[in-house]
Fold this protein.
Amino acid sequence: MNDFEKKIAGGLGTWSVGSLFLIAVSGGADSTALLSAMAVIARERGFRLRCLHVDHGIRAEAERQGDAEAVERLCVRLDVPCTVTIIPPGTVEQTAKERGIGIEAAARLFRHRAWKKELARIGAERILVAHTEDDLLETILMRFLRGSGSAGLAGMKREQYPVLRPMLFIPRADALRYLEERVIPFRTDSTNSDIHYMRNRIRLKLIPILDEFFSEPTVTWRKNVLAGAETQRYVADFLEEEASAHITWTDEMDGNRKKMSTTAVFFSIPEIVREEALFKAIDRINQADDASVPPKRSALRLFCRGCKNAVETGRVRISKEKDKVVIAKQQEFSETGFALFIRDGIDTSEEHVCDLQRGMLIKKNGSYIIGKEEKIKVSEESFPAVIHSTDSGKITVDYSGGSNG
């Protein structure tokens, strides 16, 4: 093995002979370098490899097909079995629109779902992902600009089951040099130059400025940011320990996944620990949902400060109910029942068909079609409210949300 392959082997950790790894390969430089290096490592250490390529259906068909064919050719040359998963074109964009998230986030939901499905199908130990040190820096900067907490500012972990990132502390330049030395071709995603995406703006606009003006001969901004991320990891671990030590969540299943704690205990601890406790509880509620969206800290902070008696983030609702703090996973629409939290949003005088599965925002006054033909009036005084249906399909309205909902 050469130096690059030894670094990846070190990032991989210790595994027994015969261990099976699923490698996520887009066809780009980083994942191509990872697959090529792992083929060498696998032969020397007796590992088994499988490759998965996910076509997100976002770019032009010719480009997407070219990526898949390039990955398949490389796998044939390396003697690594390959699976290609195709997401129907338009699916990612539609999901992004429905959930109110970016294209990148929606693509990640489908990609992770494909990873986990293939992992379970073949019985692999881990999914190997080619995130480099450059990706780590970009992620930290992006999360800082979005106002993330300590866990976010700590960046990605090298291992977070089932994902393992053996290249996380290897610069992208090393991967490019490895490919050049071995004359291994790779693909370039046309969207990598599209500054509509925040990560691309950071990579193409912000980082060059940081490199030019904040790189000293001995210590660069890159080393300082990584050192700061390590500090934030300690902070995040401490807050998690504090939250676990002071708050006990009880589970309840009544159609929704719920977690509850007493308000007296919850609001007696420091505010930042309350936030961490909510984040972790929501993570546990969402752990079976690979399409879940991370909660927004701004919403959780309003609740933790006592400014709101109830908040919604993603498909999770946090509320004070008598002497309890309740975190509930909202049910999705079905033929026999649904729940929809009404919030101020769309300003339209026309009747609007509500997308119950995604929690359509509607305005305060007006008549709306709910489900099949039923209508309901929403008045200024009743806002906000929670609409429920019974198993018979009859709609009832609960106005107990009050003005603080």
The longest helix spans residues 221-246. Residues 3-211 form a domain with the Rossmann fold fold (CATH 3.40.50.620).
